[in-house]
Amino acid sequence: MDSSPHKTDAAADDNGDKAKGRAWLPIAGFVFGIAVLVFIVYFVGLETIYEPLAKMGWGFFLIVALNGVRHYLRAICMYLAVPQAERSFSIRDALSARLAGETINTIAFTGLGDAAKAAMLNRKIASEHSATAVIVDEIIYYITSLILILAGAIVVLYAYGTGLALNLILFGLIFLGVVILLGTWWVVRKDIKPVSWLIKKSGDRWFIPRSLARKRDEIFEIENNVIQFQDQRPKAFYILLGIIIATQILSVLEAYWAMQMLGLTVSMVSAFIIESLTKAVNFVFFLIPGTIGAYEGGNSLILQSLGFTAGAGVALALVRRGGILFWTLLGGIILLWRGAKTSVEQLAESEGE
């Protein structure tokens, strides 16, 4: 009779130890990324990076503004993804949730921030609607990003005739992108709920968290909402698709304008290639928080392949990361404010009792 509480405590301690162990993963990834960035700056040379950066001036605020416009457009997508009858929140609430979530994605693993977005919206709407809004927005974004990557890889192969190693990488990107797109189409076409199916088939096995298994019905509902979104709400789907395509175009324009302000002559086609291959780097190295180090190194290699210097690639990455960091800091302020507000509310509740 007395053994069950001890088992519960032991299980809790074990889960706590696992959580602490996992907490080191983003820290290790962040430290690794910083080390890579320092090595890249040392290898490329600080002067070659500073020379184009010195030409940026006030143009940097245009990059910050473009980042902000993209965040706002994606917040609108989250807002519109919720049925009108359930929208008991504003676009400003969606923007706050997005900025806070992207801050977590920058300092931790991609995915944790998306869960935070849904949790913040969950204060205003039911969890199945908040999670659906975040997932639909992300899926449409990633599908359009994959199409952008495929198009960029094809343009490079057709127009530049690069070396064998890079050609193999590009063909690999094209193959992987096509497989993912076809797989996504097949899942939607066959109305498959992959997470629910995995939970059902796995039963009580160790790799399925109990908290996830307990929410199986809720997860099924969310997956059903996501898969049926286009069929049930076609008008909203195409509006979201149009908005996210606009954010992709703004990303290409940002790369173009940043290059121009760095004093580097570049065509719109080259800017398109830079953005598409940069997205490919972000996909491959998504486990590194904020893709720090990988982002700068990838830009360096991409611009070198287009005939620019490695320093120009790092300078471009640093300018664009500066725009990202501005909104990351704002998201951090939102997280701290929300945390303080929750603590005050909990204290008021405890005193009321």
Portion in beta strands: under 5%
Structural class: mainly alpha
Annotation, overall tally of beta strands: 0
The shape is globular
Mean pLDDT level:
82
- Helix count from the secondary structure assignment: 15
User: End-to-end span in angstroms?
Assistant: 33 Å
Oligomer: single chain
What is the radius of gyration? 22 Å
Helix and strand element order = HHHHHHHHHHHHHHH
Helix content: over 70%
**Uncertain residue ranges:** 5-21
Please tell me about this protein's structure.
With 353 residues, the chain is an all-alpha fold. Helix content is 81%, strand content 0%. It is built from 15 helices and no strands. The chain has helices at 3-44, 46-53, 60-80, 91-107, 112-121, 127-159, 164-189, 194-202, 210-214, 216-227, 229-232, 234-261, 268-284, 294-305, 310-352. Helix 3 (60-80) crosses helix 15. The longest helix is centred in the last third of the chain and has 43 residues, at 310-352. The radius of gyration is 22 Å and the shape is globular. The two termini are 33 Å apart. Residues 5-21 have low confidence and may be disordered.
Please specify the SSE layout and strand pairing.
Elements: H1 3-44, H2 46-53, H3 60-80, H4 91-107, H5 112-121, H6 127-159, H7 164-189, H8 194-202, H9 210-214, H10 216-227, H11 229-232, H12 234-261, H13 268-284, H14 294-305, H15 310-352
Helix pairs in contact: 2-15, 3-4, 3-6, 3-12, 3-15, 4-5, 4-15, 5-6, 6-7, 6-10, 6-12, 6-13, 8-10, 12-13, 13-14, 14-15
Brief summary of the model shown:
By secondary structure, the protein is an all-alpha fold. The chain has helices spanning 3-44, 46-53, 60-80, 91-107, 112-121, 127-159, 164-189, 194-202, 210-214, 216-227, 229-232, 234-261, 268-284, 294-305, 310-352.
